[in-house]
Amino acid sequence: MTDRMSLPLAQADPDVAAAIDHETLRQHEGLEMIASENFVSEAVLEAAGSVFTNKYAEGYPGRRYYGGCEYADIVENLARERARQIFGGEHINVQPHSGSQANASAYAAVLQPGDTILGLDLSHGGHLTHGHKLSFSGKLYRTTFYHVRRDTETIDYDELEATAIQEKPKVIIGGASAYPRLWDFARMRQIADKVGAIYIFDMAHIAGLVAGGVHPSPVPHAQITTTTTHKTLRGPRAGLIICTQDLATAVDKSVFPGQQGGPLVHIVAAKAVAFGEVLQPEFRTYAAQIVANAKALAEALQAAGFRLVSGGTDNHLMLVDVFEKGILGSEAELALGKAGITVNKNTIPYDTNPPLKASGIRVGTPALTTRGMKEPEMRQIAAWIAKALEMRNDDAALARIRGEVAELANRFPLYAWRRAPVAVEA
Ligand code: DSN
To answer: Model's pTM, two decimal places?
Structure first.
């Protein structure tokens, strides 16, 4: 290997190294409350940064198109076995590079272009890949949507059933990126069976809660369950598919060679490590604390006068209707960012504002729970959120909150040895 190939990153590429240092510090100093984000362990980071990034391994364990796959087989088999222990299910595919590619593969396994999908409307909490017209799912397939009720802001299963009977979809997909309540998996499967549709459930947001036993599982109900692995599940950024045995060959072919070439073996290895962590008893405690923290945060925000979509939360996230107080979601996101609290603006059901402004913010607890924060910290954070939104046009007040936030963050260290303050310029 040449000398240059052996240099540590800080010497080989100081610009990228500095950006990584800054990002490490940013993650440490702020309060990460984007509901879909989390912090992986050092072990997962190490596997994700391992020499498996060098390896091609098209195919599946024992049936590869390249030589030298004996260790790739070991990590892929470990990931599959551990995922099976966590979620059950008859067949597991751990190769999807992302949740979107897991969904693309799931659809392609059971649909032809032009077939109909019935999914939750994006503006009611759904996901781009559940049929939105700007996504492959809305371009390749005919799409139709179900919604939440105006009064309860929970899924309208009667509307879903009526639409299914009328539109005769080949796939009904459940799952959401911004829905704070439990799902009725049995009812959805019943509707799917009634109209002869395949029931797919995308559990990306709640997978860690399902794994930790604090949320019912869709796996016994859905013919195909998809997920990302990096949200509540706290693994590397990637996807996963669980399906019934009769769909195993179609799903495997759909992932490779249908949607992807070689798997990202370093990420598959990191999934194996993360799934090993999920199998430890501590993960159940972690999952329970995510939900307890969300409840504490929701109650404190309500006590501070905020309206929450659907009146609260059953899972890891909540949607705060800030427009009810005359604040746009985009303004709230900006003000909270200045105060060191990272959230995203989010449409609320029947929103009268466009998505880039939105009437709500989505707030989640998985990442802060990983740092060890509990209910008292959630109540403190709710007070800061209320104060920051009230003082949203006062940069000095927001900077003061940011200082208090940093003090709290310092009490819950993150990646301490990875931070290189010397390399980080102000
Ligand atoms: N971007 C993810 C989320 O934030 O929910 C969904 O893909």
So the answer is: 0.96
